[in-house]
Amino acid sequence: MKTSNAVKRNLRQYTMILALLAIWLIFTLSTKNHIFLSSRNLSNLFLQMATTGFLATGMVLVIVATHIDLSVGSVVGTLGALAAYIMVKLNMGAVAAILITLTAGLLVGAWHGYWISYRGVPAFIVTLASMTAFKGFTLAITKGATISEFPPLFKAIGQGYIPSLLIHDINGIPFNDTSAIIGIAFIILFIIYDLKKRNDRKKYGFKVLPMPLQIGRLVLISVVIALVCSIMVFEIINNEEYYKSY
Hints:
The protein is mostly helical and 246 residues long. Strands 1-2 form a two-stranded antiparallel sheet. It is built from 10 helices and 2 strands; from the N terminus they run αααααααββααα. Helix content is 72%, strand content 2%. The longest helix has 27 residues, at 177-203. The protein starts with a helix and ends with a helix.
């Protein structure tokens, strides 16, 4: 593969990543004290994306099978209400509530699968009916009111921070060694996966990048991963005094 063609192909492939970096740069420069790329703000963004990310992962399998699931949002709402009801109203622990909720989710999936796979009902019809039904289930569980005061363990899942293992600061600068370990692990796994993918493509006769471009790609993406993780590692501006002016 010619180097120029390889560069153009990879630029097209990583357009979304470049666009994301550009958006980060714009918001960083346009926010006061560049707060957009602070550890606290990134934590909030990751937390907000977590639910959508998990749902999207499951939806990929549904879409690959040429189906559609219209009920996913309603099912998530019902399961969330069920978990809250179990913990608050029934005074059960967070672990028991999570296990019961996951079991309920499996049963819902099995119910959908039965009608789609064994009865031949189109997924669109099955999940459309479920979407309406589970909206009603959510209202029946919550009575239209907020359910709150969850156990500390459950709140820690969404609101807690990963603690440092051994090193808490370097020369007075807050340092999270757990985040550093996770970042290094991500970089190593990415390099192993990318090199394995290259070898597999060569094995079956597919085109691969020239080795200099491959190394440059590995270095560039590793640096991006390291920069993102470093924000979580060096929690320089993650303190209350910094945010009092907002």
